[in-house]
Amino acid sequence: MSIVNEGFVEFLGRRYYLEMLRPGVLSLVEIKDVIESFRTRAGQLVEVVDLEFLGRSLFMEKLLMIVFREEHIYHEILVHPVMLTHPSPKDVLIIGGGDGGALREVLKHPSVERVDLVELDPDVVDLFRYRIKDVSQGSFESDKLRIIFMDGRKYVQETKEKYDIVIVDVNDPRGQAKRLYTKEFYAEVSRILRDDGIMVTHSEGIYYTPDAVLRIFSAVKVNFRIARLARTYVPSFRDEWTFSIGSKLYDPLA
Amino acid sequence: MFPELPAGSFDDRRLNLIFGEGRRFVESSKDKSYDVAIMDLTDPKGPSARLYTKEFYAEVSRILRDDGIMVTHSEGAYFYTDAVLRIFSAVKVNFRIARLARTYVPSFRDEWTFSIGSKLYDPLEADVEREIERRGIKTRFYNALIHKAAFAMGSSMEEIASREKPNEDKNPIEVE
Q1: Element holding B22 (H helix, E strand)
Q2: Which residue of A238, A241, A242 is the best one to mutate when testing the B interface, meaning the one whose CB has the most B CBs within 10 A?
Q3: Contact: B109, A238; criterion CB under 8 Å
């Protein structure tokens, strides 16, 4: 086997997707079918494939983002701990989340009056709103939703809106997404949260990328009175995935 | 060769080291000989497949005292769900109390499960915090919170497993 790049490789007469979990650790999953493969106008490589065993899945920028049959694990633990810690979340901001999974979970909370979803990539929303509806399950049609297509960091810096909850559900810190995992960005997030507001971001895997986990969590922590790290095993990421929570008043543990 | 692994425990005077096949040893042991039985075998493949069956756990139950407890590791929840359910079910049919614990084990790249069978004590009711303190146990990962988290399931595995056919001597499961 000779490997030039991450992505499709042939090995022992079968076709696999090769993904780098971290330098020195690679993953190979067998591909049955390629359903869609395109580059969005915002420049992101999107590949929807049917995998042996894992089933229908989505790779973005050559990283496995969604295994459809188990995406509820990630989206439920991303959304509900912060939403339930706040006694009555009304205004919610989702940064990223173009698949509609976080949105779907947020809308389950009856107190929610308004959800702003700020997504960089209209083509990703198109894909999940109109062509692959398994994740969003109609949530893009909610009257409470406003979709804003722009860079999440720029939106947070410029907006005059205030929120009860901010959920950061963006690509792993690679390329342009890196700017949405910094101390300076979370300071801006804190500014647009109300005095009892809470934020959460996913913050990478504990075992394969512990440095990233600690540095992201620390960047949240310096900006909030209460900071908690949650974690759960997410099979498609093959690691215990972490979620960094920053809160101004309510403690998820209390 | 790997002196750091058992930390000198092979030199403990309380140890009785027996070289033999585990199933035969259990079958030839007297009733009610042990308080705790721990199965820490290779995955069910080849000769070890016989140590994950309903019939084997019945023998384990026989050599446990009336308040005895057993545990076996029972494969990964996501990549070998069938094996997990069938092994757990094989434990469950032999014990009044059966619990499935799980924790992510990085080297196995899955949430690894542990099937517990107990005649009297329920792991969900154990005051492990007090017991760890009282016994002066030092650990690197396990603590009372991890104990609690290990039994937290997104859905009731016990219930799902009760619908599953127990792993049996006839055609025992083997993992790839």
Answers
A1: helix B22-28
A2: A238
A3: yes
Give the active site residues of B: 40
Q: Is residue A254 part of a domain?
A: no
In this structure, what are the phi and psi dihedrals at residue A232, rounded to the nearest 5 degrees?
Answer: -155, 155
Q: Which residues in chain A have their CB less than 8 angstroms from residue B104's CB?
A: 207, 233, 239-240
pLDDT in the model for residue B156: 60
Residue B2 has pLDDT above 90, yes or no: no
Given A68, A86, A112, the domain boundary residue is A68
Residue A122: which domain range?
70-247
In this predicted structure, which of A233-242, B13-22, B24-33, B158-167 has the lowest mean pLDDT?
B158-167
Q: Is the pLDDT reported for residue A5 higher than 80? A: no
Find the CB nearest B111 among A53, A208, A233: A233
* The predicted structure's pLDDT at residue B158: 62
A55 C-beta neighbours (distance < 10 Å), count: 13
DSSP string, A118-167: EES-HHHHHIIIII--TTTTTGGG-TTEEEEES-HHHHHHH----EEEEE
Residues A58 and A149 placed together within one structural domain of the fold: no
Q: Which of A53, A70, A240 sits opposite B104 (nearest CB)?
A: A240
- Nearest residue, CB atoms, B78 vs list A235, A239, A240: A235
Q: Is the dihedral of CA A78, A82, A85, A90 positive or negative?
A: negative
CATH code for the structural domain at B19-162: 3.40.50.150
With bands split at pLDDT 50, 70 and 90, how would you rate the model's confidence at A179? very high
Whole-number pLDDT of residue A17: 93
CA distances from A144 to A25, A182, B63 (A): 43, 29, 63
Question: Beta-carbon neighbour count of residue A214 at 10 Å?
Answer: 17
Check CB contact of A38 with chain B, cutoff 8 Å. Answer: no
In whole angstroms, give the CA distance from residue B104 to residue B110.
Answer: 6
| Whether the complex's predicted ipTM surpasses the cut of 0.95 | no
- pTM for the model stands at 0.89
Decide: A166 and A93 in contact? Cβ < 8 Å: yes
